[in-house]
UniProtKB/TrEMBL annotation:
Belongs to the helicase family. UvrD subfamily. It catalyses: Couples ATP hydrolysis with the unwinding of duplex DNA by translocating in the 3'-5' direction; ATP + H2O = ADP + phosphate + H(+). Pfam families: PcrA_UvrD_tudor, UvrD-helicase, UvrD_C. PROSITE patterns: UVRD_HELICASE_ATP_BIND, UVRD_HELICASE_CTER. It comes from Saliniradius amylolyticus. This is DNA 3'-5' helicase.
Amino acid sequence: MDVSELLDSLNDKQRDAVAAPPSDMLVLAGAGSGKTRVLVHRLAWLMDVQGISPFGVLAVTFTNKAAREMRSRVEALMGMSLQGMWIGTFHGLAHRLLRTHYQEARLPENFQILDADDQQRLLKRIIKGMNLDEKHYPPKQAMWFINGHKDEGLRPQHIETQGDVMRTQMREIYKVYQETCDRSGLVDFAELLLRAHELWLNHPQILAHYQKRFRAVLVDEFQDTNNIQYAWLRMLTSEHNNMMIVGDDDQSIYGWRGANVDNIQHFLRDFPDAKTIRLEQNYRSTATILKAANRVIENNSSRLGKDLWTEGNEGEPISLYAGFNELDEARFIVGQIKQWRDQGGALSDTAILYRSNAQSRVLEEALLQEAIPYRIYGGLRFFERQEVKDALGYLRMINQPLDDAAFERVINTPARGIGERTVAQIRDMARSSESSMWQAALTMLQEKRLSGRASKAVQGFVELVLKLQETTGELPLEEQADTAIKQSGLMAMYQAEKGEKAQARVDNLEELVTACKQFEVPDDAEDMTPLAAFLTHASLEAGETQADQHQDAVQMMTMHSAKGLEFPMVTIAGVEEGLFPSQQSHEEPGRLEEERRLCYVGMTRAMEKLILTYAESRRIYGQDKYHTPSRFIREIPAECIQEIRLRNTVSKPVSTSRFQPATSHSAFDSTGFSLGQRVTHPKFGEGTVLNYEGSGEHARVQVNFDEVGSKWLVLNFAKLAAV
Ligand SMILES: Nc1ncnc2c1ncn2[C@@H]1O[C@H](COP(=O)(O)OP(=O)(O)OP(=O)(O)O)[C@@H](O)[C@H]1O
Ligand SMILES: [Mg+2]
């Protein structure tokens, strides 16, 4: 390959980094300045110019997707396949190392990886086996305890408990858990890293081999490495090799998961001769987007500090839209995406980013309604999520207890002492009597075919379902859901767990109640109960296959998963206090700055067009919460923002300045009503306009009546009048 090709597409500073003589190096630079590009070109340079073999480099990045992309970019630059090169995530590389040296790592040859779900299930069994109360020692918390200590390189014998009963017990759980894993050849994610570290610690000759072999070690997204990862990298260094780390302290967003941004300082301390290169030109975003993002991040106090500029043009202002509620917000976003598509833009060039996974539901529905394909990146669709499926399981049991899948799903979730063996017995009985498991369970109880303990536990479950059926039958759908989630113990189970992920599960359960409240039985399902109609709706949505890899689809993801990526058009939804920054971050000082870094990450994903939206009222857990716009919006200079207003009618402008004539013509314009407007109906009395859909004679409006609650009305027939 022509070397100049490698360097031509780089600016001076990038070239300095790529073509530097072998040395340790830190590339510290803001978003979109070409850090990842430098790393990729450096890899190619080392192999092509320095003559290092593909087996002599080790490159680490944050996600499997990023690793695949990096490999293919280097291959494209080199014009050859690089099979076998060590390029991957920390977990992937540790796995590879352990596979190669399984004997020294004291693992069976075919050891299995335990994913988070399996890990939690195993812990549950262990906690029960130790005769501990799961309520006091929730498996999820034990998992955080174990993984957290492993991330610090600590085994049970290293953990000080200071006489704390909880810690002592957790340490014991860790010990028993680890023995079980070792016996069965199971390795969890945190264990991969710790084992790989211990492998080198205990086998200096293996370590020496790799120290010599890997002449260059390159790490992207370094700001989000945790302690064990840094320790592992540090071990690898020797006089034979060099390390290049690339990162941005302003994009450190995994502190809550143990990432340690101080590792950048540690690197400078541990590699005193390291050369620091700062890249300052941004190639990704328009000047407006860049200026706005820079100004937001300036509000953080602990920064290494850097300036970013661009030669790019001004671009359009950032659009800001205040939704009347989350439905209006979603509809606006979908409208913008349609406009983008109509102007010839690809859907895959647009991304919708949000703070919390639970926000995706309303957005997904708005997209489905318009038949716009979408893909949820790094996550499941709302109705496919574990906790949502658990809750739906109870609703399905209320609706129809003969549903075996629902029965199996919830019989022991939350744990109520019904073991796998009992479930298997019930399953066998159902099979031999050709009945449902529910019926089989009833028969077995009646005929006393279960052992004392199992019988009592199954009886408890049956009674719970019967009670739910009896007490919720007449209730409105959302109260049915609320009761089921609470009385089944699901909510309490997830609330008892710690951490961001558990919080997301609680959010999703609350969101399910909201979904029930917003659900309208479709016309063709009027013979069904609202519950049955809702369950049908949920399974259809979950069953709808996600847009496949090659289909042009809108990209949806949390801001966390968007790290390192870029899109021509980006919408950040739910930019409001209490959601983003999150409620929890108000309570812990460091967390607010991490939220602001997340905002910086989100904004800097956008290349051409950035849209920020928030909802003035948002239904959370079936209740309307009124939020104020996020402080992050106020931190953006006013001249960078253009407020978009279209939720208004042309015919009846509301007098406040916030409601100006529509800038685009929605069907609603012709109805003569505006969202939020007070109206009166001869039968239902007064209410507030919440929502609308359709146009012309099909136009329908949703009104929340003070007396009778929310109703959809066909405009042509409804005798609505403005108050
Ligand atoms: N010298 C250059 N000339 C033209 N385009 C460039 C140059 N350097 C980088 N780019 C382009 O700018 C964009 C951002 O680059 P890259 O993703 O490497 O930035 P980054 O610093 O890694 O960003 P992030 O912090 O978000 O990970 C990419 O589209 C890249 O191809
Ligand atoms: Mg990058």
